[in-house]
Each structure stands twice: as C-alpha cells, then as structure tokens.
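Fig. S4 source data, part A: sequence.
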Amino acid sequence: MAKRFSTFEGVFTPCLLSILGVIMFLRLGWVVGNIGFGGTLIIIGFANMITLATALSMSSVVTNIRIGAGGAYSIITKSLGLEAGGAIGFPLYISQAISVAFYITGFAECWLFVFPSHSLLLVSLIAWVLLLIISYLSAKFAFKVQYFIFVLIGLSIASIMMGKGSNVSHQFSFWGGYQPGQFWTIFAVFFPAVTGVLAGASMSGELNDPRKSIPLGTLAAIGVSFVIYVLLSYWYAKQIPLAELRVNTSVAVEMGRWKWMVVAGIMGATISSALAMFVGSPRVLLAMGKHSILPFMDTFARINKRGEPSTAILFTALLALITILFGSLNQIASLLTMFFLITYGMINLTVFIEQSIGIPSFRPTFQVPKIIPFFGTVSCVAVMFLIDTKFSLIAFIVIFVMYVVLIKTESQAYFPDVRSGLLVFVAEQFAKAASKLPYYPKIWKPNLLVPVEDMQKLDFALPFLRNIILPTGRLTIFKVVDKKNSEELYSLKNIDNQTNDGVPIDPKERLNQELSLKVKGLRDENIFVETAVVQAPEVLEGAVTVMQTVGGLFFPPNTMFYVLNEENDQDHVAGGIVEKASDEGLSNIVLKYDKNAGFGLERDVNLWVRSQSPNMNLSILIALQLKRNWDGVLRIVQVVYDEQDMQEALNYLLKLKKIMRLPLDVEVEILVGNFMELLKQAPKADVNIFGMQEKPDIELIRNVSSVIGTSVLFLRDSENESALA
C-alpha cells in the first residue's frame, strides 16, 4: 500500500480523537462526583500508566521490526507468530468494527438531545451511510474531516472551561465522599476512555515512517489527553457540587458557556471515534487477508484504484450495520473491552519476552526498562478481571480457541518470530535448575543413539524404534561417511544433485536431507528426533567421536542402538561400537533383523532371563515399552537344566513380577534343557529379547536369530536404569 500519512494526521489525530470521546463529556463529571478530584487523579493516572506502558512497549517493538500493515496484529504476528497474531487480530478487528456501531449510536443519542422528535434508528443509519462513503472514498479525506472535528472538540472543551459552573455555593473537596468499595467500579466506567491508543498503529501500513510516527504520535496523544482530562476534572470539582455531578451526567452541556458547541463537540467526538475505527479496522482485516491465515481470508486483501481495502471496508460496514440494527449490546460491549485489553497485554508481553530471552536480534532504537512491559502485562490482566471476571474468561477462551484453530491451519505466511527462542530460553532455565539435582534412575526413559551404515536399514528400523521410545523418548540418528569416499555420497537416490538454480548440493548436506526425509513421519508424530552426518576415516572412529560429543550435552542419549548388517563383514565394527558405548556409560541394544519374519504381527514379546542377570533392568524396561506400544503380550522365559530347578525358577519369576511391578497379564514360562536346542521350540513371539555378555559375541547373536527364526534384541545394562524405581 502507498505511504500517505504523516505523524500528525496518521497517528496523533486518530489516537487523540479516539481518547477524547463520550466518556470525557458524559462520564468524567460523574467520576469526579463519586470519588472527588484526588480519586479522579488516581484513576486517570493509573489508566494512563497502563496505556503509557502499552504505548512505550509498542514504540519499542516497532523500532525493532518492519511493522507492515495491521498495527497491533502485525506487531504480535512478527514477534509471537502468525497463530498468536491471528488469535488476537480477529477479536481486535471485530472489536473495532462493532465499536463503529456503538460510536454511531452515541452520536445518534446526542443528536436526539437537540432534536428529540427524530428517530434514533434513522439517524444512526444516515450516520452509518455517510461514514461508509467517507471511508470508502479515501482515508486521506477521512483524516481531513477529522481536522474539522479536532477543532470542534477543542472549542467544546474551551466552552466547558469557560462555563460559569453552578449557582449553588460549595467548597472544593479534594477527596469528596469517596468510599473504598467504589474504586474499581468507577475505574471500570472510566477506563474505556483511554482505549484508543492503537488507532494510529492500525494505519501502520500507510504511514510514511511508522518507526518514527507510531511512538511520537501515540505518546503525544496520551500526553495531551492526560492534561485535558486533569484540567476538566479540576474544573468539575471546583465549579460544581459533587452531589450534582453524581446525578447529572449531562452537566458538561448544561454548564458550558455555549451549550450548542458542547453538543457539537460530543457529536464530533463520537463521529470521529466511529470514523477512526471505520478507517483503521479494515486495515487489520486487510493484513490478515494478505497472510491468508484462513482459506477465505484472501478476499479481504483486495485494494481498489484509490489504494483503499474496499472489500474489507464493506465487510466492516456490514458488521457495524448488523450491530446497529440489533440495538443495545451492553454485554457484548464488555466483551469487546476485554479484547482491547488482551491486545494491550499481548503487546506488553511481546516486549517483555524479547527482553527476557536476551536474543541479539532484539535491538530497538527506542529502549524501555523491562519493568514497563511487565507492569503493562500484569495491569491489563488484572484490570480485565476487576472489570468483569465472566467476560474476561470468555475472552481468553475465544483467544485460545482461535489460536488452536490457526495452529491446525496451514498458512502461506511465516515470520521469523521468537517462539522457538522463548522455548529454548525456558528449556535452558529448567536445564540449569535440573543440572543442580542428582540423577536418579527413576527418571530414565529410552533416548537412543542410532548409527546408520546402510540408509535402507532405516526403513524397517524406524517403526521399531518408534515403538521403543514412545511416548517421550528421543532419537539421535547419525551417519558416518568417509570424507574421501565420494562414491557413496553421490550414489544417493531420490535427492537431486543440484538445486533449482543449478548449484551443486554439498554431498553431506544431501545426506542430511535424506535423513530428514526418512524421519519426517516420526517428527510429524511429535517425536523428538535429531539427525547428523559425521565425516571420519572409518565408522568406528566416527561413532566414538559422536558418543564422546553427545555425552557432554545436557540431554545426552543413554542407549546405543545398533542394527547388524545382513552380512557379517562389519561385525568387528559392531563389536567395537558396543564396547566403546559401554566405556562411555551407555547401555546397548543390538538388533538382528530377520528379513523373512520381520517383526511379525508386532504383538508377542519373549523376554529371556536368567537369575541374577546384570542386564535385567534394561531388558524389562524395553520389553514393557514394546508391550505397551504394540498393545501386545509379554512373556518371561527362563531356561533351567534340570526339572528339579523348575519350582525355584517359578518362584523367582513370580517374585520378579512382584518387585518389578509388572502387569498381571505378563506370562511366565520355564523351559528345561539346553539353551540353544530349546530355541527351536521356544514359545512363538514376534521378537525375542536376550541379555548380552560382558564381551559382545556378535556371532552368537547371529546364531540365536538364525535358530529361533525371529528378529532378536541383545541388551546390556549400564548403571543408569532401574526397573525397580
């Protein structure tokens, strides 16, 4: 969109006119009458502190990013992501669009003060049509109309200040008849007066210099309006008895030097607020339309020849018209106020988060202390619940539902937001705290380190790995390649050798791409998977380097998972990796996959145990993981050489079930005879699990798999597992 507006016309004027509205003319005197001049100063001061904190936070963030169109929507989107921006943007837009109707209704009611015989609905519809024409023709023209309204409001304030006041003599009272229980009720009535600070930011896409205009124009509007509210409050307290102020909400009109001018000022204030929302809110809808955050939203991204978002303006007008026709919407008005406050709170929260996580990219030229956005965030939430707890909860629920919907919607727009940085920051803080606590086997879960020699082995191994680590385990998969062996790197399938620009892809990067493609399904299931390609003279050396490197991380793998090749030409590598893994404090799982049997029906698991086995803990934990994720049957099998040992073995297995807290449906079976011979008549299973000797015997693993006719796992404990915990 074209850059058309300066600080004064694009930010200062719409902000100031939105603040100097109906509350100032018709409710400020009532506030003074109820709480006195001193109490009113507190209310004005606290309300302006909230809006000032929001304005300062907004000023900080807009000097750190290219804000673009959409104002607060753009700020939140580019900082916390499209989902958060959309979740706030939709309610913010609806709030602004429906606010048009409320301001028009306020104008019509004031009109009837002068012409009581006229129809409220007819006056509202005429005002609606005129505002639609003005905003549709040109925002530039709309702002020129606001200059006239600006002068009109100024004259009306002067008329009030020049009024004679009441004929009844009274004494100036600083506190009046203040009662503590009234404070928040009165504050709730006054606060909507200061909810116009985003009016200028909504025009961000059409400002000549938004980084300069938004901070300068918004802060200037807050400062000027604060002075006006204080002066008017003082005048009310000095000139009119508090008792009269409490019961007469139209005292500004009656006591003004020129009543018609005050009435004109009220009309101007309401119509200018309506016009500001009529011009600003379609820009929010336009920004959301450009991002296509929902499938139908691109309709609102259309701009006419004059640079106006015509479709968005017409839709806004329709919402306003429906609101006018349905009449009084006091409860909805409360809900809309909640959305404004949530928006303010989110802007403050955005700045607080970016300041807290300490990322170098947050370098605003307009710096604010961290206490300011923190105060703004807490104050907005607190004021919401003080005003109306029920509608506050409804507003938060609506925002949450919108966020969930947008997360599940694939949008075409993405931004370099700080969400990942925030999560990393939180993880780092918890990691620091956890590092000070001792490790206990109770927190063990399968975090597997998986070396890959043959990429095709991942096709059958990954589904099995998934069933070992679900629901919260982790996978670290790495591929070791010989730096000098380029044949392997360039023989990959399904990966182009060049980019679309004809630039050769680095072989290592292509391997990373293939690994990422293979684990995409696991990541889609929200499983934590890391992949890496390591260059080394040979596989064992590369694997040792990886083990030593990841062992020093805060979240290290705890188990080496190795898949044997079909041929035995690399068995020496397998044995070396298992031994080195044990030396590095890792437990071991060696899989011998049977290409004929596979993993069968993925149901039955045989766990072969022997009394006092040093590998019992890991074996039981892995078996239970498979049983749970396969929804299958676990059978514990023990071999004895003599029938007279059967009862002792049975007692041992039953005791094992009890102390290990195994499920009641876990079966036990005792076989008598020679171990290798009994493998041929072993109970049918889809995978068989065995303990590994201290020195790995890869040939034995192959023989057992061949004899038993299934895929087998051989496991070795470290000192980090405990099935008793």
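Fig. S4 source data, part B ends here. The mean pLDDT is 81.
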